[in-house]
Specification:
six-stranded mixed beta sheet, 2 helices, binds zinc ion
């Protein structure tokens, strides 16, 4: 009987993070993961929906920690094929064309009907219709963090994508469940007979 192999996200992928630098406000990367929350219904089929994003935890030059959640696109070049499959089947995160963005990118979709909930909706409260990370109605809802391994150092770097509208701060108190990489992710494991 083969051992179940935990497939992590950096599997076979290159590091795309910015080079170590010494700008005025360098950040050190502490944790990274997939953050999941729920509460809203799908705008199209009205089934219960979840919102997901990449959670980035950094400390600044003063040692203060901030928690951010946002788009998948800055990290997509690191995602292996099997990780992309896991994102699609477990979270409904798929490459989709967005008219608003005028481009195809990794976005949240409804697990039931496939309707797109684009970045502008999930991380930026578009027309007040935003999802679990941006709409005031959901900001008290709990989140689960699936931590990912960090295959890089914690040298100070400038993470330019950590900006409002694309990434946003998330209140640490919302994260009521943290699942560590070494706990094993059922959805990372390939289906074996
Ligand atoms: Zn739906």
């Amino acid at each position: 009987m083969p051992h179940a192999v935990v497939i992590d996200w950096g599997d076979g992928c290159r590091n795309v993070l910015p080079p170590a630098s010494s700008p005025s406000l360098p950040w050190r990367l502490r944790h990274i993961g997939i953050l999941v929350t729920s509460g809203r219904d799908c705008w199209k089929c009205h089934a219960p929906a979840q919102d997901t994003g990449v959670c980035v935890v950094v400390t600044d030059a003063a040692g203060l920690t901030s928690w951010w959640v946002g788009a998948y696109s800055p990290f997509e070049p690191m995602f292996s094929d099997i990780f992309m499959q896991a994102l699609a089947t477990r979270f409904g995160v798929r490459r989709r064309y967005s008219k608003t963005m005028g481009a195809e990118y990794l976005a949240n979709t409804c697990l039931k009907c496939g309707a797109l909930s684009g970045d502008n909706f999930v991380f930026n409260d578009f027309n007040g219709l935003g999802g679990g990370f941006s709409n005031e109605r959901y900001l008290a809802n709990p989140c689960t963090l699936y931590e990912l391994s960090a295959p890089w150092d914690s040298q100070p770097r400038q993470y330019d994508f950590l900006k409002p509208g694309f990434y946003q701060r998330v209140d640490r108190s919302r994260i009521t469940q943290v699942i560590a990489p070494d706990a094993g992710y059922p959805f990372w494991r390939p289906m074996t007979s």
